[in-house]
Amino acid sequence: MRISVTSSAVALALAGSLLAAVPASAASHQGGLHLGKIQYDSPGKDTRTNASLNAEWVEIHNNGKKKLQLKGYKLKDNTGYTYTFPTYTVGAGKTVRVHTGKGKNSGKHVYWNRGSYVWNNTGDKARLYKPSGALLDSCSWKKGKGVTSCH
Predict the structure, then answer these.
(1) How far is it, in rounded angstroms, from Cα 35 to Cα 146?
(2) What is the per-residue DSSP string for 16-32?
(3) Can you tell me whether residue 67 is helix, strand or coil?
(4) How far apart are CA 143 and CA 147, in angstroms?
(5) Which has the closest alpha carbon to 123: 100, 146, 101?
(6) Three-state DSSP class for 83?
(7) Confidence of residue 151 (pLDDT cuts 50, 70, 90)
């Protein structure tokens, strides 16, 4: 009897240490290209100025081991507003931020060049599509603090 109690205790301790060795965030983090953080409500009052429009953005993260060409990838909202990536490469482990307003594309930022907001403050859903039209990732939110983390 004493041996079975001891072996059960060892088994429980071993199982607990194995579970503790894997961080909880590792299970929820998506690999490859995916939606990251979204600032759906630009800080302050919605003034429709270019600065306010550019404070509304979506991050797309490449968690893969190789750089990716994003030409033809699409970002859409519930209404159907669509941003289609031009020729743009995101490096391995890097993030690109898609801003709603106008600007000049750079190494970490691209611009939708819109004169009005895309993402609804009271709830919406961002979708990332491959050039083939296949849904790659999506992220939805309800009214909150103005920013959400998708993965």
Answers:
(1) 16
(2) HHHHHHS-HHHHHPPPS
(3) coil
(4) 10
(5) 146
(6) strand
(7) confident
Radius of gyration of the chain, Cα coordinates, nearest whole angstrom: 21
Structure tokens at 59: 């991050």
- Percent helix, strand, coil in the chain, to 5, is 20, 30, 50
State the Cα–Cα distance between residues 53 and 38, nearest whole angstrom.
Answer: 13
Q: Token digits for 30?
A: 């998506």
Q: What DSSP character marks residue 87?
A: S
Residues 79-116 have pLDDT tens digits of: 999 999 999 999 999 999 999 999 999 989 999 999 99
Exposed/middle/buried for residue 21 (C-beta within 10 Å: 0-12, 13-18, 19+): exposed
pTM, entire model? 0.80
Calculate what percentage of the chain has a pLDDT beyond 70.
Answer: 80
